[in-house]
Write a structure and sequence with these properties.
Helix content is 79%, strand content 0%. The radius of gyration is 30 Å and the shape is elongated. It is an all-alpha fold. The protein has 14 helices and no strands.
Amino acid sequence: MPKIIDFFARIGLTLQIVKTALAASVSWLVATAILGSEYPFFAPLAAILTVQVTVADSVEKATQRIIGIVGGVAVSLLIGHWLSISSFSIFLVIIIGMGISKALRMNPQIVSQVAVSSFLVLAFGFQEEGYALERVVETLMGSVVAVLINALIVPQNAIPEVEKSMLALGEQGTKTLQFLATQLRQTEKGQLVGRQETDALIAATEQSIKSLQLAEQSLKYNPFLTHKRTRLSRLSIGVKRLEHITTQIRGIRRGIADLNSGHIFETDLQDTHALHQAMQATAVCITLFSNTIVGPQELHRPALLASIREAEQLQNQCLSTLRSINSNHTLRDIGSILTDLSRILAEAAR
């Protein structure tokens, strides 16, 4: 099934487009069968506007659509009670209908549709008995059909995208920290040390958060994916920990930039081998952590724990090199880097 979906998507027929077309046709069929209306335009129109990427978004759009049509009908009936259709009444009903919907912060497409609904009801509502009520019922039918089709037919599962983004974030975290380890004693770069790498890390973090939010939306109001909520909860914890790790890496970048710009590695701490090893070992733990969260724990966790123990030993050995430093300022800055490295291990080990 995924291969078939991918094939049609490449030629422009995405799953959402197919769902939209199906929802429109089914809503027309249901409306004609139940209401007996010959041309139930509002039902497929509501379905088209309601089908969204996730069921939660569809429910939100359906709610806005129903409120919009009810508001449009109410305004049209009120104005039509006092005024017959004319250029002035059309102006009045549209400006009031759109103004109210805009004040309620509805979707811009819905705002326009309120105007359309108001105009149609004003134009035809008093020529046919029960016209306004039928338009509301048609909208309700179209919205319900759209939500059901979106939930029943290949409901979106965004969890694989979360997993993919987490693995990419773990790899980027390892890559960034390893790069920063090579930047010890790079005084010529000054404050710009590792800026490009950390910017890429921040972008990867934002992508993971965005993917997680989309996955949470895809499971909302969708009874057919409830079994995946436990999995998503675990991934959510992993994304938050990786976000914390990103914060620590950014702190390390600033610390190294300050030390390089102050030529500290040339004066107070000329031997950076121990710190370099500690950073490299800690960096490896980040990728292993993301693999452990996404993949089977029994497969990846032993390697993660072994790497954490190795990194802890190297960090402790690095502490012994600080005894020869006499500057409190240097001790504080180096200690800050080691503290951030320790916090990275703490996040990975939790």
